[in-house]
Design a protein that fits this description.
Helix content: 25-40%
CATH topology of the largest domain: Nucleotidyltransferase, domain 5
Distance between the termini: 97 Å
Number of domains: 2
Number of strands: 8
CATH superfamily of the largest domain: Ribonuclease H-like superfamily/Ribonuclease H
Largest sheet: 5 strands, mixed
Length: about 300
């Protein structure tokens, strides 16, 4: 028969065998699909791999990438940018303290930023406040106008949630929404220290810029919102219920911000981590100044945001 068909015996028998699907791979595909759909296609293959490892599955990230590619489950990504900061104003600006800080816990450095979101018939603006240490979103607000009202509302939400101690450094760009008298007064009333990026230098506030990119790619660009109320509901769900409590962050050792804060609280209580942040202002590497401890007149002068600690 093989001679008549012009095929080898090996080919004949190989063809005749019924190939059963690989049950292990089918289970992995099902698990991958469940993770991807649960996170609304926000997860890339690296986070999916970590999530599978948490479930006890032994799988290589390359296999996850292959399966996600075959099943069209790769994360959706877009790239857009619009300038929302106007630093051409006569308000007072402050020294960049954030770049000089070494963080050891939460409520030491907060970062803030504003971005725009396009709806069907209008543009609206989102202001956020992030705890830099744990990357947790602690304050946010939406408004139809790009004024200080939206930034102050986000700040007040963060203060209400965290009830921070005096001395927290608040870092932002030099936009009028953060440099205006109303916003600075709100900071000083709550014992916070202003810090601002250098002019035309978005890298100084890179983390908040990165958060905005994540928020837009994983939430905004995946939906079309009818109005401001629908956007507000989705933003609350993403930041309050997803980003802070479910999304794994590679920079946090693939933990959520809330998991990271709990772990750091245990480590701090056991004495494994120091309790105060340090800041270095034009001093030798071995001389550090604690932000949360009383300082001498010389030390206070060194960290004065208007002089920068240098004559």
């Amino acid at each position: 028969m093989c001679q008549l068909a012009g095929v080898s015996r090996a080919s004949y028998y190989r063809r005749s065998l019924e190939v059963a699907p690989d049950e292990a791979e089918m289970a992995i595909r099902a698990a991958i699909q469940k993770i991807v759909l649960a996170h609304h296609r926000r997860y890339g293959y690296r986070r999916v791999t970590v999530d599978l490892h948490r479930q006890g599955m032994k799988i290589n990230h390359k296999q996850v990438l292959r399966i996600m590619g075959e099943d069209n489950l790769l994360a959706i990504r877009y790239r857009k940018y619009v300038l929302t900061s106007d630093s051409r104003h006569g308000c007072e600006v402050y020294l960049n303290l954030a770049a000089r800080m070494t963080l050891t816990g939460i409520n030491q450095l907060w970062v803030a930023d504003i971005t725009y979101i396009r709806l069907r018939v209008e543009f609206v603006f989102l202001a956020v406040v992030i705890d830099r240490f744990s990357r947790k979103a602690i304050g946010w607000a939406l408004d139809r106008t790009l004024t200080s009202r939206v930034s102050i509302t986000a700040l007040r939400m963060a203060i209400q949630q965290r009830k921070p101690p005096a001395g927290v450094v608040h870092h932002s760009d030099r936009g009028i929404q953060y440099a205006c008298a109303d916003y600075v007064e709100e900071l000083k009333t709550n014992g916070m220290v202003p810090s601002m990026s250098r002019p035309a230098n978005p890298w100084d506030n890179a983390f908040c810029e990165s958060f905005m990119k994540t928020f837009k790619q994983e939430e905004i660009y995946c939906h079309e919102y009818r109005d401001l109320q629908e956007l507000s509901d989705h933003s609350e769900e993403f930041m309050g219920n997803y980003y802070n409590t479910q999304r794994l962050h590679s920079a946090l050792g693939y933990r959520t911000p809330e998991e990271f804060e709990r772990d750091m609280a245990v480590a701090t209580a056991s004495g494994a981590i120091a309790g105060a942040a340090t800041i270095q202002c034009f001093t030798p590497p071995h001389q550090e100044i604690s932000l949360n401890q009383p300082q001498s007149e010389e030390a206070e002068k060194a960290v004065d945001p208007h002089t920068g600690g240098a004559e």
